[in-house]
Amino acid sequence: MVRAARAAQNRTELLLAQLADARDEQARAAALAERSRIAAELHDVLAHCLSGAAIQLQGARLLATREPASARVREAIQRASDLVNDGLANARAAVGALRGEPLPGIADLEDLVAGFRRDFLVPASLTIQGQPHPLTAETDLLLYRAAQEALTNIARYAPRAPTLVSLRYRSGRTCLTVQNRAADPDPSDGSLPAPRDLTTIGGGHGLAGLSERLERVGGTLHAGPHLDGWQVDVDVPA
């Protein structure tokens, strides 16, 4: 009777464990299905809107070449077209992330800075110091998002400001700094000023939200005036 009772208990525990595994698998499947649904909705909405904007800008560019239009106008249209195309690529990347595809990280910082330099016609550079060490996927993504948000704010509030992005590997820590100096009020190269109405884009809470996410992984974010410009410092554990 004792042996039978123990065998029955073992079978019960095994069945309960299998039931728990089945529930976990069901929850994962439901979460994946919901993420796929959201990804499909985002793709349909964003891809449609941005693709339409890209087509309209392409038409405007062709019209500007056929009818009298200054080089500055044609340049502005081309830059807007490039930005829309980049936005479309970023939207597709976000959709891919919802579907479980790889997310950007510090390995993509060089492309991020190059795109910022190309789109906003400002001197921007990236420096990397120290011996690279592995980071968690979340920390890697947060460093990239911090750099992206800081560069977006520079384009929004300090157009044409010379910018330096620095990534430093230290013992047990990784540090990111995005620093800009005062913008040249009258560029000698004839480049177009960044549109001032960029200040109306976004809710102004990007860095605050990133700071909260960084705190959850043991990191910190500080932003404030530095010399004649602005500086954002991010510190995360390795």
Describe the structure.
The chain has 238 residues and is an alpha+beta fold. It folds into 2 domains: 1-102; 105-238, Heat Shock Protein 90 (2-Layer Sandwich). The chain is 58% helix and 16% strand. It contains 5 helices and 5 strands. The protein has helices at 2-66, 71-98, 109-120, 137-157, 206-216, and strands at residues 124-129, 163-170, 173-180, 220-226, 229-237. Strands 1-2-3-5-4 form a 5-stranded mixed sheet. The chain is flat. The N and C termini lie far apart (57 Å). The model is unreliable at 189-205 (pLDDT under 50).
Q: Which SSEs are present, and which pair or pack?
A:
Elements: H1 2-66, H2 71-98, H3 109-120, E1 124-129, H4 137-157, E2 163-170, E3 173-180, H5 206-216, E4 220-226, E5 229-237
Parallel strand pairs: 1-2
Antiparallel strand pairs: 2-3, 3-5, 4-5
Helix pairs in contact: 1-2, 3-4, 4-5
Mean pLDDT: 78
Anisotropy-based shape: flat
Helix tally equals 5
Which runs of at least 5 residues are low in confidence (pLDDT < 50)? 189-205
CATH architecture of the largest domain: 2-Layer Sandwich
CATH superfamily of the largest domain: Histidine kinase-like ATPase, C-terminal domain
Distance between the termini: 57 Å
Largest sheet: 5 strands, mixed
Quantity of strands, as a count: 5
Number of domains: 2
Integer-rounded radius of gyration: 24 Å
- Reported by name, the CATH topology of the largest domain is Heat Shock Protein 90
Helix content: 55-70%
Within the largest sheet, what's the order of strands?
Answer: 1-2-3-5-4
